[in-house]
Write a structure and sequence with these properties.
Rossmann fold, 9 helices, transferase, 308 residues, metal ion binding, single chain, 9 strands, alpha/beta, three-stranded antiparallel β-sheet, SIR2/SIRT2 'Small Domain', binds 2'-O-acetyl adenosine-5-diphosphoribose
Length: 308
């Protein structure tokens, strides 16, 4: 029997139905694109626009980044040389400090979902941009920052925290702006940890090769068994263990994928017309969630002045 909706009107009906009691959301960079933050893997995304030749690195490290741009966010490279990560992340760190980006319609939909239905169990966000936290009506404990956050800083070696404003001042002056070589110092100089003195201070994001916050595993255990609906939005679903949510939910959980293109087929998302549990809402996140907000009759609750 088909339990998944076949269109947005059906999804709205499902959300409002008494049988649907618990809803979780898994988001990726695509939900923040409308705010002006590029994603990782699309053309024009962070990995596509990486300029290894401009980064303060050894020839071997530059080669590694040319071969696999993701190397820039690995513990392996950061431990050897913190500059590639710090130089690439510089505009994002300073933009965060300056509150450059606003929560999108997608983020506001999750907030409305909580306020209007009280069915939002959790947002698992892979994003480090903090835009979910701009939606102040969502209790903080409902948001799991699976890959950490760019809006605080600590030493990746010993864990000592650094004041974020002081950290940003150092990023502004010590780390060169590789995308605008004229404006920054010619070479980056390290930001040393006040405790261990190592040059390993960075935003509290999770590097590949490091552990995810224990909160992720705890909430997965707690939330998934009783989940009625999982909304997966704006993620390529290529990074584990975040993508494991898709196949860890019970058989009875309806999965809704909101994305520009099909993702996660290898994880068992079923895009065939025979699919009984999956619904693919293809399009830009903000367009799809706006349509859903309208279908739910919540448009008057969307505050246009909050939007990007
Ligand atoms: P990706 O860049 O891998 O995937 C973004 C997905 O969103 C792609 O499928 C895009 O087609 C889609 N997309 C982009 N803009 C969209 C829009 N406006 N509306 C709908 N879909 C859109 O980003 P993530 O899946 O978030 O991890 O990447 C996962 C992790 O890989 C990140 O958290 C980061 C990265 O390496 C770490 O750095 C640890």
């Amino acid at each position: 029997m088909r339990v998944a909706p076949v269109d947005i009107a059906g999804l709205a009906k499902l959300i409002l139905s008494p049988e649907c009691k618990s809803i979780a959301v898994l988001t990726g960079a695509g939900v923040s694109v409308a705010s002006g933050i590029p994603d990782f893997r699309s053309p024009g995304g962070m990995y596509d626009t990486l300029c290894p030749d401009l980064i303060t690195a050894t020839p071997a490290q530059r080669n590694a980044m040319k071969h696999e741009p993701m190397a820039v966010v690995t513990w392996e490279m950061f431990e050897q040389n913190s500059f590639p990560y710090m130089e690439v992340r510089r505009p994002f760190i300073l933009g965060t400090k300056n509150h450059q980006w606003k929560a999108t319609i997608a983020h506001r939909f999750f907030e409305l979902l909580h306020v209007k239905t009280n069915k939002l169990t959790r947002i698992f966000t892979q994003n480090i941009d903090g835009l979910d936290h701009q939606c102040k009506k969502i209790p903080t404990e409902k948001i799991v920052n699976v890959h950490g956050s760019i809006s605080s800083a600590s030493c990746e070696g010993c864990g000592t925290k650094m004041d974020f404003v002081k950290f940003c001042e150092a990023v502004e002056t010590n780390i060169k702006d590789i995308y605008n070589p004229e404006s920054g110092p010619k070479e980056s100089t390290p930001i040393l940890c006040g405790n261990c003195k190592k040059p390993l201070v960075k935003p509290t994001t999770v590097l590949f090769g490091r552990s995810l916050p224990s909160q992720f595993f705890e909430r997965v255990q707690e939330d998934l068994p009783n989940l009625d609906l999982l909304i997966v939005a704006g993620t390529s679903l290529v990074v584990s263990p975040a993508n494991s949510l898709c196949y860890s939910v019970p058989q009875s959980t309806v999965r809704v994928i909101v994305n520009q293109e099909p993702v996660g087929e290898e994880l068992g998302i079923d895009y065939s017309p025979e699919s009984t549990h999956d619904f693919f809402a293809q399009g830009k996140c903000d367009d799809v969630f706006l349509e859903l907000i309208i279908a739910l009759g919540w448009l008057d609750d969307l505050n246009v002045k909050d939007l990007p």
